Amino acid sequence: VLRDVDDRGFEIGLHPTWYAFDDAEELAAQKHQLESVLGHEVRSVRQHWLHYDIRKTTRAHSAAGFEYDSTLGVTGNVGFRFGTAYPWQLHDLDSGEDLDLFEVPLIAQDTSLFDAKHMGLDEELAVAYVTNLADAVERVGGVLTLNWHPDLTLPEKRWNTFVRVVEELDDRGAWFATTSQLGDYWREQYG
Prior knowledge:
The chain is built from 7 helices and 6 strands. By secondary structure, the protein is an alpha/beta fold.
C-alpha cells in the first residue's frame, strides 16, 4: 500500500511512535525502516499526537536526517500556534545554532475540528473555520497546512468537509504541494 501511494506521487513522511519524540537514534531507525520499504529517502516528519518538546524534538529530527517537520500546530484547536502561516528554519535552542530543518506549520486538522473533546464542529462550521483560515493565509501569501487522517474520513461530515475545502482552495487557484515540495520551494525562495 505504501509503495502504491508513493508511486502515485504522494509524499510518505514518518509518523513516529509516541516515545520517539526526543530520541534521534529511534527516529533514525524508524526512518530507515520506512525508507527500506519505499526504496528512497524519507524527508519529512510529523510527530504522533503532535508530541513535541521544542528543545529536544527539533534537535532529534535534525540528527535523524529529516529536512522538514510539520508537527507544530495546535492540538484541540486550529490556527497559527506560532503566529505565522510561513515555514521557518528551526534552531537548536540550547546551542543557538541553525539546523538544516524547516518547520511547515500545521494550521488545521480534522481531529481538532470534529472530535467532541476538542471543537466538536458540524460540517458547515468546520468548512467556515477552514475557509476563514484560508482567507487569512491568502491575505499574507502563506501556507495552509491541512492534516486529514485517512482512517477517519468515513464519517460523512469529515469527508464532505475535506472535499468542500479542497474544491474551494482549487477554485481559488491554490498550489497543492507535499511537505517536501513546499519546503524545497521555501528554501529556494527564502532560505
